[in-house]
């Protein structure tokens, strides 16, 4: 029998592991009767004898070698002296004293171990829950914050990236902890080669798991289980990554204001050339003022302007441009509203962009309009040379001077008369519809209207003010054409301008005699003229509220909650399964020293060789299959954890004292 052959001994001292026929001279082990000093002296004497037996060169400095120092040996590798020197290179110490050994024993109680395993797994789950809760709080905070600056966006992205990494790393560590718990149950339930056992002890590493797949490629059941484990780890990372797809930074209509240099519109004239601030001629301003008012319906939706339908007046529509609104409501009712307001904008051009962006300010101008209605009793077809108007007091007046009329048309006339410093008089001739020749011609409608434009409220700079001449031109815009006429045989008007609309246009639709509705339409035209002047006139730079581009966080909450539920729910279910499954055997601590002690029966067979060998090389030296199990004393009072080929596979480890 070889001196170093390992044999478990059964009997009274079955719990003790020793070498039979151990050699006496090498100080590998000591008898119980030897003192520590004797042991050390023997070890020292043995080392000195070994050194003395090795031929070495002279010591030029006369230094005495330490007890663990060996010079280079220039001997025949196959010689007996070299073999003895090789055997003594292995560091040898005596075992620790009996009292110290007893301190290393443990009482294995499954319930106590279950609590420890559960504490480790619950701690990881609570940490995951904390990170997921912080993720939800962060989403809600930045979503409620509204528009984010570029700096705030970077802070959000950094926080999201940090929390995602924390969740991801915590999931990786949690899965590794579960693998470290489960490996002991796996090792105890099967017979494994040394290479398989080496990889199973490192199963928490995905790299080792992939290598294990290569060993098990001919075992479909094991490949399926191990592949699912690897996919589970990857799936956890993918779920965390999908969180990045549950939100979006929307830049449309995401703007904020800061004090700075802005552009404000020049309000002293209606400029036909938006790029040049050269004062235009009066007729040019008149035409541009009318053109700008005519364009306002580009900003109105649901255009049902005062149509006659079975005697009912429909609404004019909903104002889409938030800077224009009625004084009281956002829509016009059947009776109509007579007042409008417009809020001026500050304009900002973003870097690298051609178009300017507006910020609607609190600088407001109000348009008040009022009309009285009279009947056109002659010439209401729009074809006669003479138009006769009958007023409410039954007096009549011939309007022979008006030339710009047409069948079923509506003519707006600016008389040049002012009803105040910022007020204009507008006459409206609306001819009677003649669609059905069998129905007698109805009366036409004559409206005498006044339109006034207030000063700008909230103005803080001279550039914010709207001059009186511009206000009057805006009030008269619906009747301006750029062409002036002198009325014949009519002394109430010196010069007038007029504009004719047919009933197919928004401004020429039949009002059915509703004076309030006509006043509202004229007021809307004036508001449109002012609004488009604000958009298209040249601008000057002043200090104001500068518009800046930002982003708005849009979160798809159902996907956020789904991803977080998968992470937390999957973590909890897996932790419960692992905890109860692994607890059936003794789960050793994942420590190199603890694992090395368990592997002693295997690696001790290598003798002094193999200190530089790889795991694969060492595993190749052991062709037999082994299992992780328990050796028990005769009475079952003492147990010993071991790895060996003679151990039987075990589902459950016995409770009790482990040495």
Q: How would you sum up this structure, described in words?
A:
This protein is α+β, with helices and mostly antiparallel strands and 659 residues long. The chain has three domains: 6-95, no CATH class; 105-249 and 554-658; 259-549, no CATH class. The chain is 35% helix and 21% strand. The protein is built from 15 helices and 24 strands. The strands form seven sheets. Strands 11, 12, 13, 14, 15, 16, 17, 18 and 19 form a nine-stranded antiparallel β-sheet that branches. It has a four-stranded mixed β-sheet with strand order 3-24-23-22. Strands 4-21-5 form a three-stranded antiparallel β-sheet. It is rod-shaped and about 140 Å long.
User: Poorly predicted ranges (pLDDT <50, ≥5 residues)?
Assistant: 1-85, 301-320
Class derived from helix and strand content? alpha+beta
Largest sheet: 9 strands, antiparallel
Q: Terminal Cα separation, in Å?
A: 28 Å
Give the averaged pLDDT, no decimals: 77
Taken as a percent bin, the fraction of beta residues is 15-25%
Overall geometric form: rod-shaped
DSSP helix fraction: 25-40%
Number of H/I helices: 15
Task: Report the C-alpha radius of gyration, rounded.
Answer: 49 Å
Number of domains: 3
E-strand count:
24
């Amino acid at each position: 029998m070889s001196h170093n052959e390992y044999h478990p001994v059964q009997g009274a001292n079955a719990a003790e592991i020793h070498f039979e026929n151990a050699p006496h001279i090498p100080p590998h082990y000591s008898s119980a009767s030897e003192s520590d000093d004797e042991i050390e002296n023997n070890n020292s004497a043995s080392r000195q004898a070994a050194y003395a037996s090795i031929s070495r060169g002279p010591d030029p400095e006369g230094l005495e070698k330490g007890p663990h120092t060996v010079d280079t040996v220039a001997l025949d590798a196959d010689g007996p002296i070299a073999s003895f020197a090789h055997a003594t290179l292995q560091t040898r110490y005596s075992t620790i004293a009996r009292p110290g050994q007893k301190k290393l024993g443990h009482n294995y109680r499954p319930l106590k171990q279950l609590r420890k395993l559960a504490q480790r797994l619950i701690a990881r789950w609570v940490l995951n829950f904390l990170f997921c809760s912080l993720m939800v709080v962060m989403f809600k905070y930045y979503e409620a914050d509204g528009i984010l600056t570029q700096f705030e966006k970077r802070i959000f992205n950094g926080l999201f990236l940090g929390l995602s990494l924390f969740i991801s790393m915590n999931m990786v560590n949690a899965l590794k902890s579960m693998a470290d718990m489960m490996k002991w149950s796996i090792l105890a339930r099967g017979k494994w080669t040394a290479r398989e056992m080496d990889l199973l002890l490192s199963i928490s590493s995905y790299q080792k798991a992939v290598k294990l797949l290569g060993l098990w490629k001919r075992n479909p059941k094991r490949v399926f289980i191990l592949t699912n484990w690897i996919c589970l780890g990857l799936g956890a990372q993918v779920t965390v990554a999908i969180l990045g797809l549950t939100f979006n930074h929307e830049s449309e209509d995401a703007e904020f204001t800061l004090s700075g240099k802005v552009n404000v519109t020049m309000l002293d004239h209606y400029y036909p050339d938006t790029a040049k601030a050269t004062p235009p001629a009066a007729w040019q301003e008149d035409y541009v003022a009318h053109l700008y008012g005519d364009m306002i319906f580009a900003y109105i939706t649901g255009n049902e302007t005062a149509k006659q339908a079975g005697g009912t007046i429909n609404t004019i529509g909903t104002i889409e441009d938030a800077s224009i609104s009625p004084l009281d409501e956002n829509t016009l009712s059947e009776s109509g509203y007579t007042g409008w307001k417009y809020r001026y904008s500050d304009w900002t051009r973003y870097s690298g962009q051609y178009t300017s962006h507006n910020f609607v300010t609190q600088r407001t101008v109000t348009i008040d309009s009022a009309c009285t209605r009279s009947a056109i009793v002659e010439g209401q077809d729009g074809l006669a040379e003479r138009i006769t108007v009958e007023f409410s007091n039954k007096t009549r007046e011939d309007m022979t001077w008006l030339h710009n009329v047409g069948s079923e048309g509506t003519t707006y006339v600016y008389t040049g008369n002012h009803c105040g410093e910022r007020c204009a008089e507008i006459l409206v001739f609306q001819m009677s519809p003649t669609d059905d020749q069998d129905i007698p011609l109805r009366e036409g409608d004559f409206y005498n209207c006044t339109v006034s434009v207030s000063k700008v409220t909230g103005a803080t700079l001279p550039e914010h003010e709207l001059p009186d001449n511009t206000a009057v031109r805006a009030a008269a815009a619906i009747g301006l054409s750029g062409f002036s006429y002198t009325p014949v045989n009519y002394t109430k008007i010196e010069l007038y301008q007029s504009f004719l609309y047919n009933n197919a246009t928004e401004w020429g639709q039949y009002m059915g005699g509703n004076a309030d509705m006509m006043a509202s339409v004229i007021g809307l035209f004036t508001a449109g003229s002012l609004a488009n002047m604000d958009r298209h006139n040249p601008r000057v730079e002043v200090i104001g509220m500068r518009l800046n581009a930002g982003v708005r966080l849009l979160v798809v909450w159902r996907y956020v909650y789904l991803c977080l539920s998968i992470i937390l729910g999957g973590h909890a279910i897996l932790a419960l399964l692992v905890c109860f499954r692994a607890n059936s055997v003794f789960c050793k601590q994942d420590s190199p020293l603890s694992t090395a002690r368990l592997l002693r029966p295997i690696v001790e067979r290598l003798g002094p060789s193999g200190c530089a060998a790889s795991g694969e090389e060492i595993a190749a030296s052991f062709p037999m299959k082994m299992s992780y199990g328990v050796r028990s004393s005769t009475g079952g009072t003492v147990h010993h954890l071991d790895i060996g080929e003679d151990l039987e596979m075990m589902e459950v480890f016995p409770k009790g004292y482990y040495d």
